[in-house]
UniProtKB/TrEMBL annotation:
Subcellular location: Cell membrane
Membrane topology reported for the UniProt record: Multi-pass membrane protein
Pfam families: BPD_transp_1
Superkingdom of origin: Bacteria
Region (Disordered): 1-28
Domain ABC transmembrane type-1 positions: 95-306
Spans through the membrane: 37-64, 99-120, 132-153, 184-202, 234-258, 290-315
Originating species: Brachybacterium saurashtrense
Gene Ontology biological process terms from the UniProt entry: transmembrane transport
Principal localisation: membrane
UniProt keyword Metal-binding present: no
UniProt keyword DNA repair present: no
Name listed for the protein in its UniProt record: Sugar ABC transporter permease
Length: 322
């Protein structure tokens, strides 16, 4: 045996040791890792199947049945969907109310959040106190907020109508007028704009100062810096707020249920309160399930539209760097 053969054999024997992973222990080690992984995520899997996936599948099945929660479900095929979309004027009006509320409250809330965030990003005294005060309403339970706004919208003694009276405007009966009940709910939705404001403030703090310094050197004023530096850098946060706003606005429930009950004459009735009434007050579980899945499709359509158009206006700095 030559010295060269001896050296190659020695290298071959030493190769597994240099890899740092013994071959004999690889398969059992991986099985142990996999077992540990599934053991740790098993609570989530049980919760997902028991409380989300299972009810969703059962809801799909119910949407094709007529079920009163007490007798056996009766298979009716697409009858629930056909009735909702072609022969239920209340449902069509409810979806119109929901779309009206969403298409106005979401952009308005985003503009208010951006305006407040821009103000609170200035270097002023007590800035932290103001930021805390803006976010505090977001922590108040929605039931308490609804009761507060019930007093705010009171036709005679309410502070809103009293403020309008001071400038010579006679305020409407907000919650009992078909023309004003939806604007009242939209005004109420601005109460919780603090959540979006905090996210925008976090985004503003992440913008490099050098970008503003470069803009100043180029002669850009405050407004120009906002539209050319601040706004493009914030578009990922604005996009997130838009998606969450769409989902939340189409699922509005407590405000309507507590303040108006859908009235007057279904002028403020929304999709989720109608779903609740059909399923749990009138025991039309199949009809209510069909409403839920139509609402799901509508929300997915608006969300998909937002994602499809995001490439034209959402700026991701990481994509530019790559």
């Amino acid at each position: 045996m030559t010295s060269t053969d001896t050296g190659l054999r020695a290298d071959a024997d030493a190769a597994p040791q240099r890899s740092g992973r013994p071959r004999a222990q690889t398969a059992p080690h991986r099985r142990k890792e996999a077992l540990t992984f599934y053991l740790f995520i098993s609570p989530w899997i049980i919760g997902f199947v028991g409380f989300l996936l299972g009810p969703m599948l059962f809801s799909i099945y119910l949407s094709f049945t007529r079920w009163d929660s007490f007798t056996a479900p009766v298979w009716v095929g697409l009858d629930n969907y056909i009735t909702l979309l072609t022969d239920d004027p209340i449902f069509l009006r409810v979806m119109g109310n929901t779309a009206y509320y969403s298409l106005i409250s979401v952009p308005l809330g985003m503009v208010v959040s951006l305006f407040i965030a821009n103000l609170l990003n200035k270097k002023v005294r007590f800035r932290k106190v103001f930021r805390t005060l803006v976010y505090l309403p977001h922590l108040i339970p929605i039931v308490a907020v609804a009761l507060i706004f019930q007093m705010v919208f009171a036709p005679e003694a309410g502070p809103l109508n009293q403020a309008l009276a001071m400038v010579g405007i006679e305020g409407p009966n907000w919650l009992m007028d078909e023309n004003w009940v939806k604007p009242a709910l939209i005004l109420m939705s601005l109460w919780q704009a603090g959540g979006g404001t905090i996210l925008l403030l976090a985004g503003m703090n992440g913008i490099p100062k050098e970008m503003y310094e470069a803009a100043e050197i180029d002669g850009a004023g405050g407004m120009r810096q906002f539209w050319s530096v601040t706004f493009p850098q914030l578009t990922p946060v604005i996009f997130f707020n838009l998606i969450m706003g769409i989902i939340g606005s189409f699922q509005v429930f407590a405000q309507v249920f507590i303040l108006t009950g859908g009235g007057p004459d279904n002028a403020s009735q929304m999709a989720v309160p109608m779903l609740f009434d059909e399923a749990f007050r009138f025991y039309h579980m199949g009809y209510g399930s069909a409403i839920a899945w139509i609402l799901f499709v509508v929300i997915m359509a608006f969300t998909a539209l937002a994602f499809a158009t995001s490439g034209r206006w959402v700026f991701y700095e990481s994509e530019v760097r790559s």
